[in-house]
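Margin note: ligand = heme C.
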Amino acid sequence: MNTLRKIVDWFESRLQLRDSLWPVMRHPIPAEVSTRKGWWYVFGSMTMTFFVLQVVTGICLALDYEPTAEGAYASLEYLNYEAPVGWLLRAMHYYSASAMVVMLVVHMTQVFLMGAFKYPRELTWMAGVGLMVLTLGLAFTGQVLRFDGDAYWGAGVAVSALGRVPAAGPSLVHLVLGGEYIGGHTLSRFFALHVFVLPALLVAVLSLHLYLVVKRGISEPPDPNRPVVPERYDEEYSRLLECGVPFFPHAFYRDGVACAIGVLIVVGLAVVFGPKGPMAPADPTLIQAEPRPDWYFLPLFALAALAPPSMETLLLLGLPALGIGVLLAVPLIAGKGQRSATRRPFAVVCVTVSFVCLSVLGWYGKTSPWSPQMDAWSGEPIPRRIVARLSPLELQGAVVFQHKCCRNCHALDGRGGKRGPDLTSVGTRLNYDAMVRQVVQGGGNMPTYGQKLNRAEIDALVAFLVALRPEGVPPANLPAAASSANSEIAQPGIPQSP
Ligand code: HEC
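Resulting structure:
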């Protein structure tokens, strides 16, 4: 016992926690918070606890995760099936992320309805909005790291939204993807964002948030008879604290209990439902994937899908920006006056309308077959003009062309994807051998089809490609090197609306 005491004293005489941390833990809070009403105050701590859980499980996952296009999928499978408790870590990371988003929303709603963002806590709220943006950023980048088919196309949809930013769009896409298309370099960027940049920013903003919470004190439960008057508030609040109680243990134990329950629920969900995905590996040649984002982004996704295509850009870019702007402005617009929800009908209406909209849109996003308009994945038949003069072998090739969805990336007669060159007259540009090579080996941004087609299919397909030239023009006899298709790639990223 004496030795223990000595060890503690040794540290204490150096760290001096007794007069730094201890006063923080014992800082006074309004007495009312230590009554049953105190349970309203646990949501922030819960959000933070889930973040800590994310960091811990995330570090463990990063030990085995491989942020490369070739390795990502296999490393997730390894975590799921081979690494001891790998599956549990992946599942906990997923459910804890969801829990973090849920608690964040609950916390913000509670703070909003209880008017806790009003003077002098405006900045605390704004830092909180920053935390929300960073959390959603983490959620999105994390989802891409799963790098299965859905994640691949999901990122594609998001990136093509980014590509619509006026003027800066293409450069932004290049910055995010690390190139012209989604691949290994994209994954490195998302990995860096997900494990270094965003968490570091989040910790920084969180520190400011917590500093403000401790410095300006937590708000007392709202009282309809005591509206916030900035000139008087500080004095009233310090009078309230004179008969206040220390944070530890009065509020601390509630936080502890709530967080423990939260963690248990996450572990329970993880054990029962297991890890999410990965679905089929990311493969640009498969479009059966549903480019549906994880649930937090479903409302926005549905909105883009429901709205007429002409409004997509506005909605995908404008709405999030508007939402964040409004949230930031809230304490500036309504920074004083009534705090009690019973006297703020407009605030209650806002919350109700927001939640109804988000749920309805989320539901549509979950169930609807729509995806934002992407003419690129064209199931459209090959133009009659072309098919009409084909030989039987070339017709077979046309069928292969159709079934392998080459038009997701290649247009015919100007209709179809823009990721690869228009193939309407490819027969005049490339000779037979060059086309076989292109189809079998892919390259320059095109997937390899060697494994996916048999010899007969390749023969037919290439015969069809050779036939793609204006009537009367002989087939090309150029060596492959002479064709420079790259310059024709119109848009970076994923197929976009023309
Ligand atoms: C994921 C998008 C994508 C898909 C799917 C795709 N391609 Fe390509 N393709 C490209 C890109 C990008 C290029 C340009 C390659 C380069 O820059 O070297 C290309 C080039 C070509 C070329 C050479 C064109 C030229 O003018 O040089 C041919 C021929 C071709 N693809 C045929 C096909 C066929 C046939 C299919 C279906 C089996 C197909 N592609 C599927 C992206 C795609």
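The two ends are 76 Å apart (CA to CA).
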